[in-house]
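Q: Can I see a sequence and its folded structure?
A: Here is a first one.
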Amino acid sequence: MARSGSTTFAPDCFLNRELSWLDFNLRVLEEAENPENPLLERMKFLAIFSSNLDEFFMVRVSGIREQAFGESAPQDYAADGMSAIEQLRGIANRTQELVARQYRCLKESIGPAMAAEGFELLRYEALTSEQRSHVDRFFRERALPILTPMACDPAHPSPRYHNRGLYLGVMLEHTEGLGPKQLFAVVQVPQVLPRIVTVPGSAEGKTSFVLLEDIVAARLPELFGGFQVKSWTAFRITRDSDIELLEQESDDMLKLIEERLKARQRGQAVRIEIASRADETLARMIIDDEALHDGVSDGYSEVYRIDGPLDLTALWELYKMPGFERLKDRPFSPQMPAALTRRGGGDIFSVIAAGDVLMHHPYESFDPVVEFVTSAANDPRVLAIKQTLYRTSGDSPISRALMTAAEAGKHVTALVELKARFDEANNVSWARQLERAGVHVVFGFLDLKTHCKVSLVVRNEGQRLRRYVHLGTGNYNPSTATIYTDLGLFTADEQIAEDASALFNLLTGYSQGHAWRKLIVAPNDLHRRTIELIEEQTERARAGQPARIFAKMNSLVDHQVIEALYRASQAGVPIDIVSRGICSLRPGVPGLSETIRVLSVVDRFLEHSRIYIFGEGEDAQVFLSSADWMPRNFFRRVEVMFPVLAAELRARILEEIIPTYLADNTRARLLDAEGVYHLPHPRPGEAAHRCQVEFMERTSRESESLATLAASADGSERRSGSARHQAGPQPAARGRSGSGKGRKPTRS
């Protein structure tokens, strides 16, 4: 398959990235279909499938659509050789299949199972008198004051339907009064109201609810008084929502982002979801008005006819209803990192000064990261804090700590990435609050996203200033830290700290020319160094020396890195890849990638950590990173790959974390050479391994063990103190154990 004598591989050596992403969303759907998962967790995966698909259309499909149909768009071909229009057709066909499968799962599996648990979705016309009275009161008091019926005629142009807004389209007619005899009109279903409206149960033990759109639809004659409703349908438009800034200039990026956020709601339509029972004349009016393709002329359809409720992200409302914990995963409480518990006492800085600390979230708590910043804000010896913020929580304790530090007179700098997709509005809000508090806020570069996760604290420790650093694979967001798997590192290593200072100087002042000691930074060096590290293993294998590559990431797309991996495989390097989402590499192809194995873990927590290992045993170089192996991470983002230097932390990753992932035989799907993922099942007599469950169990055992040791030590100390009190002062012990000389230091 490889071209002889060439470093360029044929298109059929690659899997299409868009179709690979759809296969990832299929794996999400399979978790909804899996009866081994608790019922409400299955329903949650249905909602995740829908929200994933929304973002895919808003960003990826919109970009390919522009390539296919834009007047000046370049007609690029993907690495696998597919043209833009071929990709669109492939995406549309695959997505239609997946959406149909999603609704079959809802109607034939999850829906009946929910009904068996006492949940009932009622239509308005099936409500009892008591239930109808409840719904009518809800409509009058909460919905009617918000609703706006909108006629569409020459005097009332069609509204610009909001991106992902749910609407009712209505055909009306009347014989007398104002307006035309026949009329098309729309009503937006209010997004500020709950989509799922609970009503009194029809029987004891029943949890009954009705959809908001059904309530509004039942009142259409009231909203359009004097007209007769001939037909109506629910529909939903998805729009191009990618904020493109590369060709724009602005003196104020904050204002520019705010302007683009407003424009997002008015982007080009890329998909319509409409009820399958919709009257065809009514449906055609909406489809044609948005200039959407229907598949008649070119075999490519942007119309999705849905047999069921539109927009299943609303299922989150059911999932979050209190009182049904038995239908969810067993609660898990993140534990304090063992290193922090063992070292005990002292502040966070003295703990880090004693040695590097590795944290594995969500199994280990994110609280120490929050404590790191809040302690720095309140510590009078801390002079400066520098922080990147890519995605933060709505009530971010880290952002509030930065404001506290600035108000206390500390030098505080925050790099707020305004272009973090779909978190722009939240980040704009935080940027303005931070500025008002006196924080030096910068926004990085117009043409690059700052995606690295770095926090730097400068502390006055008497004779010198000491720098403390936190580096992570995930965001400074305590909320997502409970559901995303990530790794974080605390260190006071001087070379890493020096590099971290240089990184912030680059971000805030374009300062360049620093000779990086430990950090590998994109877009400067990360792509080149990644390929060099792969090639080092290739040369070792060719020389008959031990070699190995392990890479865990969200997505593997960059074709130059894939080609380097192919060359390494051809040299005999064993390669394990754990790629949660996209993988454009084709594994297990004779003569090309025989030594490459690709896994994808989709489970309770979102796999988000990036781990890269080059080498075997003691020679292994272990890195963590904020970056996937994608062109955007290598060339269009500021990213960091950082080494794990402490021997015990390297051992934990090499001997505990990585083997646990590779041993998973229940949720780690295996990719074959044809691009198909296979869900594993333990063979007869083989123990079942589920990596996320084993991480939870291991962390809990370690926490319990440390708590027992601490209690035992505390009891011994109390007994010893009591004995000393009874016997009076004791003479000091003689010899080496008394003086401490020659004693081996205790490793924490």
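Q: Show me another, different protein.
A: A second, unrelated one:
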Amino acid sequence: MKKRLSLLMVLMMVLSLVPMSVFAASGSMTGGVLSFDDTDENATAEDFSVKLTQGAFSDIKGGGKVAKLTLSNDAEFTTDAQQSVIFNAGGDPITYASTTNSNAVPAADVSVTIDAAFKNIAYVTLNNDIQVGKDAMDILLRLEANFKELNAGDVTLTVDEMNSSKLSVADPIKVAVIKEATSDDFKIVVADSEKKLGMDGGQLSKVEVKDFDANTTTLEFELPDYLSWANTTFAVSVDGAMKTATRNPSDFEKASITDSSLTNADSVLFQPEVKVDRRDSSMGDITLKVTATGGAKQTASEVVGQLVDFEAAMTAVEKGKKEIPSIYGGDDATIKVTIKGVKGTFSDNRAIDFTVKGADITTSSISGSATKLDGGIVTDEDDGEFTYYVNGSNEDELEFNLEISADYAQNGAVTLTAESRDFGTLECEIAKVTPAFTVEVAKITDIKKGESLATADVIIKEAKAGILGSDQFIVLNLNDKNRETLSFASDYKVEATNGLKVDEDIFNEEGGSKNALSTLVVEIESSSVKEAGVITISNVVVNVDGATVDGVKTIDVYVVEDRSYTYGSNDQYSGNVSKMKDAVEFIDRTEPDAEYAVDYVNVVKEYGATATTTVFVIGSKSYTVNGEMMTANEAPFIAGKGYTMLPVRALAESLGLTADWNSNTKTATFSNDSKVASVTMGASTMYVNGTPIPLNAKAEIKNGSTFIELRSLASAFGVELQWDAATKTVTIIG
């Protein structure tokens, strides 16, 4: 047993020393690679020989078709391809038909046949098996093919095994090289080689053929095989005289003009109009081949356009100008939007959904032909969404006007996104916005519950002179979202610079005195001149009620216009805003988003207390509490419209809250010594100490874990938030 095992191991070691390449076949041209040019009409029956070298110990299974031969570049085998096939053996005899033979195999036992339907394919048939010995075996195939007027490039022969014969060649064998016949004079001049053509076809760039032989009587125009001429005839200008070119009735990618006027002509002009015959066509350059005959035969090729697949681009400019507008917060602008594509890009009655980010939509209206777009349906004005429908499928350009209005605090780019099943998603910048003014607080002041402290000045700075005007109120709201437990003390003052004037008597919403104010209204009496104005609210003392929830509180800043407001059937506010209390009433009823929400005071249990720092990473279950690594049941994630959802239990435990879950009502409750927060899954409201707090996104359960939106958590638990977009990291301090 040991002896047999050792002999087997020796045999395996010997075989392992045999190069693997000897088991594979390789091929070469024994007589050298043939060479023709792409205008050669005489290369109709050219002989060539191919040698296939079959590796040692790699038997060939016969008894039928053993290999398929395939020529590339439209070359075809001729009937004479069935010439003799000679097998030349190596040093060792070949076992053929179970009989030890000499170094040759009778050619009569091997044949080559051409495929009945595809003349570029032939088959090698072997009647019996061949066993190759330790030396490789050479197989010589003498073949014949038609290389007449092929496209420039290589002609290769691919050898693929059939019926597990093991007769195959890994790399195609180069049989011939087809060179492009050129003339120093004959040329094609193209007006725009970058012109794009879609899958519905259309016109390519204008073409001029010039400097062809003086005795020319015929010009043939040949397109790539995936295109065809759109019409049976088309106009051709020969030295300014109108002539007609005719499409080949059996080969639609070819067309020609035969006319005596071509003799001694200087120039031929035409514009190809084509159809796309195959949807799997190669994208990219479209090359036109022109052949002149009658005199000296000449051929030239040139790129006349690009084939693209439903390509579209969206651009925007300010109406009447050449660039997008640069505006300030509070300004309006009218944008002209253009979507350009190729024919076939826009399907009839196809919806194009648009979304504006960074500004509000005022109106959207069709500009130009009403047959191109149908309707401007604002589906969700708050989210800046509207829809157009394409009217007609022959359009390659759509255009409309869009009116936008920027928020006062908007900063940066306004973008427009277009989505369609036809062309996917497009996005472009339509405006740049600079904030109308900024609100600054030098530092956040820590205030213990039940106490009052002076805070840093609140400074409002215009971006340029005249932005704030006499038709505006600035509303500053200090109300805690949980309970109205914060208020300004009476001893403060307001100053303005550079001609910007404000009403010095700042009243609360009831028109009362300065005492115990939670909302202040600054009425602008006149605009600044020459230089931007600055409003400073100083000597500010904030009172903190003992029931106030811990954490950082913001001062929310709004701008309200002095004008009449009217809403639709679900009126929240309708009437004139002409007084301070009107401005506050407008804010209370409509509950708009604040222009600015600036961190202002931090309500603490004890001065100098160390806050807990919790860090979550979106998509990761791992998080840290004061640097200590923890693991949550589920990872934080980004929901719907970009809201960050955090696992409440993990956060509550890190902040020392007691958590409870009611499975019957699907309500999660979290509490400590000063607050009780409860939230029901799927609800849009959370309750903190009994007060309803609106949620930006509904609470939800994911794999058994409760998630609530980040900003709502901050409001409920009184914590400071930090967001790092680059690392997708949320830091909660509280």
